[in-house]
Amino acid sequence: MRNFEKDLIFWYGLHKIAGDDMKLHYLVSTEKEYLFHLANITFYGLQQYTLYSGDKLTLIDDTEYSKFSDYIIDHYELLYRVRFRYYTKKVTKLKIQTEEQIKKAKEVIVNLLIPYFNKHCFKTFTTWKHIVPAYIAGMIFNFEYDINYQASDKKLKTSMIYPFLYTLNIINIQDRENLFKRIRIYFDRKKIIKKYESGRSWKTKEKEYLSDTMLLLNNEEEWNTFVSNFALDKWDTFNMEERYKSLFQLSKIICILMKDKITSVTMLGNGVEQYDLLESYLPLFIYSDKIVNESGNISMDVIEKYGKTCTPFSTIYLSTPELWDYVVAKETHLPIDEARLSLMVEIIWTILLKLRITKLNHLYLPDIVNLQIEQKKKLFVNILKIYSEVGEGKYKALGSGAFNIEEFYISDADIAELKNSNDSIRDILRYNSLFKISLGLSYVLGLNMPTAKSFDYDIFEIIKYIITILGPHPVDRTIMTTELMELIQVKFARILDWYSLLGDTQKEKYKQYFELPYRLYKMKQK
Fold this sequence. Notes:
Blueprint: H1 9-18, H2 22-30, H3 32-53, H4 65-74, H5 76-83, H6 99-120, E1 122-123, H7 125-128, H8 132-142, E2 145-150, E3 156-158, H9 162-170, H10 179-186, H11 189-197, H12 204-209, H13 211-218, H14 220-227, H15 232-235, H16 240-257, H17 272-278, H18 282-286, H19 288-291, H20 300-306, E4 309-310, H21 320-329, H22 338-364, H23 366-375, H24 377-383, E5 387-391, E6 394-397, H25 412-420, H26 425-430, H27 433-446, H28 451-454, H29 459-470, H30 482-500, H31 504-525
Antiparallel strand pairs: 1-4, 2-3, 5-6
Helix pairs in contact: 1-2, 1-6, 3-4, 3-5, 3-6, 4-6, 8-9, 8-22, 9-16, 21-22, 22-23, 22-29, 27-31, 30-31
């Protein structure tokens, strides 16, 4: 188990779930690696159960805990295989084979893990209305595959809701003003037809299924009429079901473009099953402009109708309520504003999932994502160096990072580095901790433009919240003290002043870490 995982806010929350049960408290304190692994599997299992049952995931009644735990343990091997598919380092499997091992795992799931997720992972629309893109991206990772069905060659099948979610993400559904323009650029009719005719061979049933879609594509006038559905003057008149139908048709086009990734296009069916599974999310996913007023309020009728939906991320790493409770409970913790804490959590979730999904999209639909990168070339290529240009309008990802949130966590060892290094540039540059904080800071500034304004253009205020969220959260103490923040301010100011004196060639080496922070720092000094 990695060191930073031992000090996640998750453990603080899990102790609260244990209540007065000393046996459970002992388990949380002594078997962190076991619990952490099983928690990841359990949350992913809850998501996959919806595909198995065909039912929306709602708050789980305690009488049904055992039903979910049985499913999770019965499918452990497949859940493990898919949950950790993007990890660069192999994650050790748990041994859940003997009756005793199975009994223990199920007891942990029933008594600790499902109650934890039940408490923290079901939110009303008002709670997540600002992070719809993060929800869509998170669900793409959860539902890329359906572990409940395997092809004859034992390969996992793509889930039936994956292409629809993927479509929402690739077209940036929330920006409806430019929706029509993007779809006209991204979905070139002739290129789609060419893709249909190349790559793997279509199965007979797939050809039959796509026959109407190909008639649409082969008739330019009908295609233009279909695309016009996404023009603002028409889109705004559609009700939720009409919008869904247009988007579902577009998801069939996505399947053609991703034909070598999709196991079988026929899994999409007529879209009814997808609608039923996603119904709790669709009001905000595709209809938010109609249910959220100018003040950002959602009508109580809508909230009461749809209730709470399950977050696509487990809150093992980030949980605003637990973070706030933790801050309040620690006497020496730096002063924190609850609203700003919640905002920064939203920003971090959104940008990291955006980075992860963009990298995944680039593997599957490089032509479309290259166009998206081109629009933000200065940021993605020149400053943050997430991609490099390999030809005119063509890019490749730099580095092997998957942009999992754990890549940005600040460990106790990182804090010790900051405390032990002196204020000389040579010493500061020797350590990884400041670079990690700087990279996180660069991302929240560059990939979420309102960040600086939301925090009064105060670079150290932003750093304070980043470390409060991504730093260690030991149960018995806090690292976020006035002394630590003063120390970080001195070192950070020192390195930014040094960066300002570098020539262009020297700056290039450190640009992704310090360019955006330096701009904000310089602006505040004026």
